[in-house]
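user: can you give me the structure for this one chain? tokens are fine.
assistant: on it. calling the predictor now.
[tool input]
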Amino acid sequence: MSLISENLKFLRKKMGYTQEQMAREAGIKRSLLGAYEEGRADPRISNLLKFSEIFQLAVDDLIGKDLTGNAVIPANGRTARKDNNLRVLSITVDSQNRENIELVPQKAAAGYLNGYADPEYISELPKFHLPMLPDQATYRAFEISGDSMLPLRSGTVVIGRYIDDISELRNGDTYVLVTRDEGIVYKRVYRYADNPDLFCLTSDNRQYSAYDVRGEDILEIWEAKAFISTEFPEPGDDDEMTLKKLADIVLDLQQEVIKLKDR
């Protein structure tokens, strides 16, 4: 492969973009970007200029320098979109230029809020690989605490795929959110239809109340894709959870009926 093909693939992954997202950003077809990255075609000067603007690098660097040698990569080319407040993402790669999955343990959660954009901090986190995850994305692992998302217990590691556009959040799906005021939380997320900049975070454990977070206070979004746990569910846990949820629903309905009668 040529330097430009290796650099394009490397820089795209560094920014956390899929080929489809990068092609859309550059205004070209995904198949053409694939041809560039596989060395089957060379970009014309107009497209080189587009890539130069996206990555904030000189054209000479894109075609003449090997940019894949750094083990720690600050994604300086990515800027926050106008419709959200997401920040620069730093990642690490191994000796084969594969992105690592960095692990943020519970004891590092507080420090992550200050160091999530610091390449040196990210480089010190534990790292691993999972071969079953698609390689066209950036992943990070977070050790959750508490029992708000049962049956996932405290100490479970949730692996999330990086989401760079807050509009991609889907109602009812689970995400690890890095937030300004609440810290790192793993919740089920809903967007208000009448206020798209406000999000409702709910727990699967009904003992915990839902709360709202503004989009501008969300620093990073990681879509939950897998989890790792050293604790196996106890027999009957699922049945107990289901019965408890049903009991909670019935209780809520009874309270609503009482309120209606009082009116």
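assistant: here you go. Helices lie at 3-14, 19-26, 30-37, 45-55, 59-64, 109-115, 119-123, 237-262. Residues 70-86 have pLDDT under 50 and may be disordered.
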